[in-house]
Amino acid sequence: MAFVSDVVPDKELLARHTQGDPHAFGELVQRHRDRMWAVALRTLGDPEEASDALQDAFLSAFRAAARFRGDAAVTTWLHRIVVNACLDRLRRKAIRPFVPIGDDATFDSVAPKMADPTDAHGVSLDVIAALQMLSPEQRSALILVDMMGYAVDDAARVLEVPPGTIKSRCARGRARLVPLLGHLRNRRANGIVGDTEEGGGEST
Amino acid sequence: MNPAHLDYDTLAELAEGLLDHEHAASANEHLDDCAECRERSAELADVSRILAEAPAPDMPADLAARLDAAIMAEAMSSSTVTSLTHRRAGRRWQILSVAAASVVAIGGGVLIGGAVLKGADSPEGTAQATPPRVADPTDRGASEGALSSRSDRSGYPVLRSGTDYRSGTLAERLRAGLASPPPPGGGAAPAELAGCVSAVAGNRQPYLVEVARYEGAPATLVLLPAGEGRFDVVVAGPGCAAGRPDVVQRLQISR
User: Fold this and answer.
1) Which of A124, B35, B142, B156 has its CB 3.0 to 4.6 Å from that of B206, i.e. a possible disulfide?
2) How far apart, in whole angstroms, are the C-alpha atoms of residue B154 and residue B197?
3) What total number of domains does chain A contain?
4) Where in the numbering of this chain does the RNA polymerase sigma factor 70 region 4 type domain appear (chain A) (predicted)?
5) Is A2 domain-assigned?
6) For B202, left (φ over 0), alpha (ψ -120 to 50), or beta?
7) Among A95, A130, A162, which residue terminates a domain?
8) Are residues A83 and B96 in contact, defined by beta-carbon separation less than 8 angstroms?
9) Is the CB of A177 inside 8 Å of chain B's CB atoms?
10) Contact residues on chain B for A23, CB-CB shorter than 8 A
11) What is the DSSP track for chain B?
C-alpha cells in the first residue's frame, strides 16, 4: 500500500464516498477520529457515552454525506455532527444532573485528588470533570475555542450561532471555571517558581 | 475611583470585548488601581491556558476498532458492490477454515496463514478478493514450456501408492521416490481425479500424480516440474475436486 505520501483532501474523500467508494469514508474517519474523540469525551465527560455518541455521529455523517455543503470545511461539518450527537445525548439522557456552581462538596467528589502536577492523565480528568459543571452550550464553545484551538468564527460555524454568542458563552464559562481549575493553576505556579520555562515540574 | 471590585463575569466579558465602551473604560480604570482585580484577571487568563494545555485523551483501541467495524458494516449494507465483496470474503473464510482444519502447519501453511491475516486486518483487502492462491500456475511454469502443453493435461502418470505420508518425512520420501523413473504416463485419469488435479495444477503439466494418504487421510499428491530438477509438490486433501483444490500442504523438493 503506497498511498502514504499522496494525501487526498478531505473533500475529495467525501466526494468519493458519495460516489460509492466503500473505503473513502473509513479513511476520513481514521484521519479525524482522535480530535473527534477528544471533543466527544470532553463534552460528555463519560467514556461510554462518548463512544456511543461518536459512533452515532460517524454513522449519521456517513449517511448525510450527500448533504454536505462544499462551502464549509469537512472538519467543521464533522465537528458539528459530533457536537450535536453529544448534545442530543445530553438532552435525552441527562447523564449527569446539573450541579450548582460553588457546591464544593459535590465538586470534590467528582474531581480526583491529584498529587502530581505532571500527571497528564489526572489533569485531563480534572479538566473534564470541571467542564461538566458548565452548561452544555458554554462547554461546547470552550472546548472548541480554548481546547481545540478554533477561531471564534470557526466555532460559530460549527455550532451555528453568531460569533458574539460564542464569545459570550466562552466568557461565562471561563468565569465559572476559575474556582474549579484553581488547584491546577496553583500547582503549576508553584512548580515554576523563579523560572519562566517549564522546568520539569520540580516543586520546591 | 471606582471602589466596586470586578467579578469574574465582568472581567471575562471585558477580555472578550463584550462590554460596551463606557463600561469597559471604567473597568480598565479600576484594574489600573486594583491589584486584587488584576490577580483575578490573571486567574481567568489561566483558565484558557489550562484548557489549552490539557492533554488530549487517547482514544481507546477497542473504540477505534469498533468504529472501523461499524463503518465497514455500514459501507457493506449500503452498496451492492461491496456486499458482493462481503459474500466473497465470507466464502473465502470458509475455504480457509477448511484448510486450517487440515494439516497446514508447515510450508504452504505460511501462504494460507498470510491470507487469513490479511482478511482479518484489512477488510478493504477483500475488495480484490481472489480465492487463496494454490497452484501458482504461471510463475515458475513459464520455464517449463515444453511440458506445460495445455491441451495435453491428461497425459500425466498416476501412481496409486496408498502410501501414508507424514509431514515430517514427506520431502525426504518423495525425493527418494524421484530417484526411480516415473511410471508410464497413463491414459485419461478418472474424471474425479482429473478435476482435482486440474484445480491444483492450473495450467501446469504434472510430472506425476500420486494417490496416497497424508497424515492418515486420503490425499492426492501433485508434483509439478519447477525447472532445474526441482518440483513443486501440492498435497490436496480429500475434498479436492474440480474447481476446489483443497490444498493441505505445499512444498518444493529437488531431485
Assistant:
1) B156
2) 9
3) 2
4) 126-177
5) no
6) left
7) A95
8) no
9) yes
10) 75, 124, 127
11) ---SPPPHHHHHHHHTT-S-HHHHHHHHHHHHH-HHHHHHHHHHHHHHHHHHHSPPPPPPHHHHHHHHHHHHHHHHHT-HHHHHHHHHHHHHHHHHHHHHHSS-SSTTHHHHHHHHHHHHH-GGGGGG--PPP-S--STGGGGGTTT--TT-GGGS-EEEEEEEE-TTTHHHHHHHHHTSPPPPP-SPPPHHHHHHHHHHHTTSPPSEEEEEEETTEEEEEEEEEEETTEEEEEEE-TT-BTTB--EEEEEEEE-
Task: Please write the tens of the pLDDT for every residue from A39-93.
Answer: 999 999 999 999 999 999 999 999 888 888 777 889 999 999 999 999 999 888 7
Give me the residue from A121, A167, A181 closest to B50, CB to CB. Answer: A181
Contacts of A92 (CB under 8 A, 6+ apart): none
- What's the pLDDT tens digit per position in B130-182? 333 333 333 433 333 333 333 344 578 888 888 888 888 888 888 888 777 77
**Helix, strand or coil, per DSSP, at residue A121:** helix
B19, B39, B46, B87, best to mutate vs chain A, most A CBs in 10 Å: B46
On whether any CB of chain B is under 8 Å from the CB of A128, the answer is: yes
Size of interface A-B (CB pairs under 8 A): 128
Q: What is the ipTM of this complex?
A: 0.78
Give the gap in angstroms from C-alpha A97 to the nearest C-alpha of chain B: 23
A111 to chain B, any CB pair closer than 8 A? The answer is no
Residue A89: give the domain boundaries: 8-95
Domain check: are A124 and A184 in the same one? yes
Q: Do B12 and A174 touch (CB under 8 A)?
A: yes
